Amino acid sequence: MKYIEVGIGNTWIDRTETELANGSEFEQKGIVKPIVFHSVYIRVRYNTLTLSRDYKNNG
């Protein structure tokens, strides 16, 4: 499964994190294709405030 992350505070501004079946994971710089969308999850942090939204479950 792949996760695409964009934001300040990561190793890179945009990265793809891939999880393998054995539980290990690795990161790659940029957005690695192919992309298959299962859901969109957005999290915004500002100081101690965190807002999140998961669009797989209709909000």
TrEMBL record:
It comes from the Bacteria. This is DUF3977 family protein. It holds the Pfam family DUF3977. It comes from Paenibacillus selenitireducens.
